[in-house]
Amino acid sequence: MSDKAGPRHQQPSWPPPITPEQSQGGPNLIGYAGQPMAAARAVQPAQAAQPVKHRRRVFWWFFAALQLAFVVWVVAGGVSASNETTDAGRAGGTIGVGLIILLWALVDVIVGITYAVYRFASRDK
Questions:
Q1: How far apart are CA 110 and CA 62, in angstroms?
Q2: Around 40, how many Cα atoms within 13 Å sit in the side-chain half-sphere?
Q3: How far apart are CA 21 and CA 39, in angstroms?
Q4: Half-sphere exposure of 120 (CA within 13 A, CB side)
Q5: Residue 114 CA neighbour count, 13 Å, CB half
């Protein structure tokens, strides 16, 4: 009974047999759905002629400029608060710098949510 017939006892078909195209030039790598890897990576001549589009980083530059503006504002507020001679003046400066930092955090949250909504709406479908 060593000769068992039927579909349950056949040899597995993985890896798939190597085609003559795969055996010519290079390693015999199998990609998705049995296609050779070299064919999956092949660049068409029409694609190679097109210029590469660089992503514009408008949001990043806007966000960096916004952060720089808030840093300058906080430093300026801290310097003006340190020049006060009275306790009330220093307390007012501290409250002012705290409000600037609070505004900074709120603006960052609003800008971040706006950017997330923009990215979600413009993603590939």
A1: 13
A2: 9
A3: 10
A4: 6
A5: 9
> Whole-angstrom Cα distance, residue 77 to residue 68?
14
- Please write the tens of the pLDDT for every residue from 40-85: 455 555 555 567 777 778 888 999 999 999 999 999 999 988 888 8
**All structural domains of the chain with their residue ranges:** 12-48, 58-121
Nearest to 116 by CA among 65, 106, 103, 108: 108
Locate 96 and state its tokens. 């002012």
DSSP-assigned beta bridge partners for residue 36: 30
pTM of the model: 0.53
**Residue spans of alpha helices (H) in 1-125:** 20-23, 37-41, 45-49, 58-82, 87-121
Read off the tokens for 122: 């413009």
